[in-house]
Write a structure and sequence with these properties.
The complex is a heterodimer of chains A (291) and B (277). Chain A has 291 residues and is mainly α. Helix content of chain A is 78%, strand content 1%. Chain A has a single domain, classed as Orthogonal Bundle (MetI-like fold), CATH 1.10.3720.10. Chain A has twelve helices and two strands. In chain A, helix 5 crosses helix 6. Chain B is of the alpha/beta class and 277 residues long. Chain B is built from ten helices and ten strands. The termini of chain B are far apart. In chain B, helix 3 packs across helix 4 and helix 3 runs parallel beside helix 6. In chain B, a hairpin with a 2-residue loop joins strand 1 and strand 2. Chain B is globular and about 55 Å long. Helix content of chain B is 33%, strand content 26%. The mean pLDDT of chain B is 88. Chain B has helices spanning 65-72, 102-108, 123-133, 139-152, 156-159, 172-184, 202-215, 228-234, 256-261, 266-272, and strands at residues 25-36, 39-50, 54-58, 82-90, 93-94, 109-112, 190-194, 220-224, 237-244, 247-255. Classes of the chains: A mainly alpha (291), B alpha/beta (277).
Chain lengths: 291, 277
């Protein structure tokens, strides 16, 4: 009887495998295909500008003047990178601090609500943060150093945006550190501070790094906030108070009326952004794998 | 030609001779009880731990042997729900006193865990980190003490070429010996070992067991083990724990051979004969 039962159950499992596996495989392949198709589509649309060695002009043209046929992306690329690096330099330490507090110092009651708060903040629509930046932060900066919309405003709002991402990723990495290591460090007479600094954080370094890279990808891809608070002037940033335009904002600003090679220029911007984000995502996945 | 300035003795100086007299208690555990929240896991344990000897704690899982170990180095402080009552006297000082500097205490009483727990950093850093923590500033001194500890556990020849590679690249047995070296590098007086061989394969286990035997005399060792044959092979003293009414108790304590050959208590007899547990 038992044998028959086990036979039946293994038979039905076999059936489920037969039907489920192809479905799952299809879903997986679709995801991969979408990514490849997007990159191919971007390439095709940007081709009028990229083909015949035209991609060199994207880096050698003196500025972005689409009406005069100048498509230099470098100033906007520089701004995108500056905003990303500025935001991660501020959000990294703050986020890691939040993660350490959440994981090791917060009283149990507070921990739950603090984690919820971070999750909500991580899910905050960027347009809301942008609106706050535009109506509160930018006027404050304008009082200090006109005109107000600036690289600094963009970095500040983006920092707020990626701190929770950073904190949640950091907390996940810290909580994955085996308790054995912590008690091992304690048994060697290491103080609480040293345990964190020299044992827990190094043990969680790959997870923390992956959080940093994920946050960087998020900052690089952010559009709405930059559109709202950065001023949208195409120029190399010479200081924190200069109004600037990032690659993402550029696409959003000009897509409505761009045609011909101008339109191809926007797709070329998109292609570069996508490739940068892909590199960051790949590095993040790699750093996790090293755990 | 004979050198007359040399000592006429060939056995080394008297100070270095192995003690053969009656051992002195180094730790005096008195009426020790441990609870986690409302649940009491160990009740009124009293025993002496003798200097330079190996004391084995045997008995089934969950009867409070590990809790006894972690009370001795105050690792119980890490668990907010843990409460330890009674007294543990270490060379005249009360360990359970709240004013005791636990960081210094843990330097003098090292601990080895069941699962090897090397830090995921280089082999060298694993050994130098505790030294730096305890104020050894000179790099050369840290390096020489690390080397000495690695030699003591027989790991030096195996790792001297790759001190800067990750400690996680070592095999399980090597990792456990590294953990022992990491404890020894602080020159502790007592080593607490919580089933140090149970996560290792038989060959590594034999290597670690031999190492434990080599440490006898130089260090006082308290070892929790579920391997009765191992306890019999290495220990001078043994304590048998048993759970009555869900609370761990010390049933019998004495010289290891006596405890195994002529146990005074029927429960001990049954356990060492493999009837129960």
């Amino acid at each position: 009887m038992l044998m028959i039962l086990s036979k039946v159950s293994s038979l039905s499992r076999w059936n489920i495998d037969r039907t489920l596996a192809p479905l799952l495989r299809m879903a997986g392949m679709m995801c991969a295909a979408v990514l490849i198709l997007i990159v191919l589509f971007l390439l095709r649309e940007a081709w009028p500008l990229l083909g015949n060695g035209g991609w060199v002009n994207l880096f050698s043209d003196d500025g972005w003047y689409p009406l005069e046929g100048l498509y230099g992306l470098l100033p906007m690329l520089a701004v995108s990178l500056a905003v990303m690096l500025g935001a991660i330099m501020l959000a990294g330490p703050v986020g890691l601090g939040c993660a350490l507090f959440l994981q090791f110092y917060a009283p149990p009651g507070l921990r739950k609500s603090f984690r919820l708060l971070l999750s909500l903040l991580a899910g905050m629509p960027s347009v809301v943060l942008g609106l706050w930046g535009l109506t509160v932060l930018v006027p404050i900066i304008a009082l200090w150093q006109p005109p107000g919309p600036s690289l600094l405003a963009a970095i500040a709002v983006l920092t707020l945006m990626i701190v929770p991402t950073m904190a949640l990723a950091g907390a996940a990495a810290l909580s994955a550190v085996p308790a054995d290591l912590v008690s091992g460090a304690a048994a060697l007479g290491m103080s609480a501070k040293s345990r964190l600094l020299y044992v827990v954080i190094p043990a969680a370094r790959h997870g923390i790094l992956s959080g940093v890279l994920m946050s960087m990808a998020r900052a690089l891809g952010e559009t709405m906030v930059l559109l709202m608070v950065s001023g949208n002037v195409v120029q190399y940033p010479h200081g924190l108070f200069d109004p600037v335009r990032a690659l993402t904002a550029n696409i959003a600003l000009e897509m409505a009326y761009a045609t011909g090679t101008h339109r191809a220029g926007l797709f070329a911007s998109g292609l570069f952004l996508t490739l940068l984000v892909l590199v960051l995502a790949w590095l993040a996945a790699r750093s996790v794998r090293y755990d | 030609m004979t050198n007359y300035s040399e000592s006429p003795y060939t056995l080394g100086s008297i100070d270095e001779a192995v003690a053969c007299c009656a051992p002195k208690p180094q730790l005096k555990v008195r009426a020790l009880s441990v609870s986690y929240g409302d649940r009491r896991v160990l009740e009124t344990v009293s025993m002496d731990i003798y200097r330079g000897c190996i004391t084995a704690l045997i008995g089934p899982s969950g009867c409070g042997k590990t809790s006894l170990l972690t009370s001795i180095n105050r690792l119980t402080d890490m668990l907010p729900s843990a409460r330890v009552e009674g007294s543990v006297c270490f060379e005249g000082q009360e360990i359970l006193d709240t004013t005791v500097d636990t960081l210094r205490l843990r330097r003098r009483i090292g601990m080895i865990f069941q699962k090897p727990n090397p830090f995921p950093i280089s082999i060298r850093r694993n050994l130098e980190l505790p030294l730096r923590e305890h104020g050894v500033r000179k790099r050369s001194e840290r390096a020489s003490r690390a080397e000495q500890a690695l030699r003591d556990v027989g790991l030096w020849e195996e790792v001297k070429e790759r001190l800067d590679s990750s400690a996680l690249s070592l095999s399980g047995g090597q990792q456990q010996r590294l953990c022992i070296a990491r404890a020894l590098v602080l020159e502790p007086e007592i080593l607490l070992m919580d089933e140090p061989c149970s996560a290792l394969d038989p060959i590594s286990s034999a290597v670690v067991e031999e190492l434990i035997l080599r440490l006898r005399g130089r260090y006082t060792i308290v070892i929790v083990t579920h391997n009765l044959a191992q306890a019999k092979r290495v220990a001078n003293y043994a304590g048998f724990f048993w759970m009555t009414e869900r609370v761990g108790k010390l049933i019998e304590f004495g010289q290891c051979q006596r405890l195994f050959d002529t146990p005074a208590h029927a429960l001990t007899q049954a356990y060492v004969d493999g009837v129960r547990g």
